[in-house]
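Narrative of activities, Objective 1.

The group set out to show that a structural description can be obtained from nothing but a protein's sequence at a throughput compatible with the screening campaign. Below is one input-output pair from the validation batch, recorded exactly as produced.
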Amino acid sequence: MPEIIVKYDNKIIEKVVTEKPRISIGRTSDNDIVLDNRGVSRKHALIEFSPDSAIVIDNDSLNGTFVNDRKIMEETLKDKDRICIGKYELIFNSSMERENKFSDLDGTMLLQTKAHKERLKADKKQKEITEKLGCSVILEVNNKGDKREHLLDRDVVTFGKSKFCNIPIRGFWAPQIAAKVIREGASFTLANLGKIGYTKVNGEAISRRDLRNNDLIQIGRSFFKFIEAGA
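Output recorded for this entry:
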């Protein structure tokens, strides 16, 4: 059965396991998941469950609901997706792991924190990039702060030193082909083709990983960010 891990300040404060078809998230005590913070609306969001999927729905909240740092109104959840509501982070596990006037805002405080502003700004910028290019993107980031966009507009996109690779990587000892991104429907999977540990996602070495919006990819000495279109 599904499990929601609730984190605040990067610390786990609650684990919620449910068999309900729908759970509510908000600031008041009548919600299934209570997030006691003025940046959270009284009835902030819902998660609806069906036998083969889960959908998070924002309830016209003031500060918004984010999935993997992308602001959403409604989003189908995948295993390990991160839901950000106010200062809280909720991790969705598809199965339980073992081990405006102010009075009109229903008492909700408009978040003006630096982190929230940066999240909104980044979300707007990413949507502008994917709308302009018409597809999901690998954003190359170098140590000078320059960013280069690589389109994920084909079924397989390769990384490596070979001139035949779609995205070049740095390093004298870099392999000819180091990794590839495979498009399967609306999903993208990153596969390591180099030595063990050569490809990492969010600092974790991988052999194969489904990508989520805003994932940080490291291939050898090269760094990239995955930006998902239409999220």
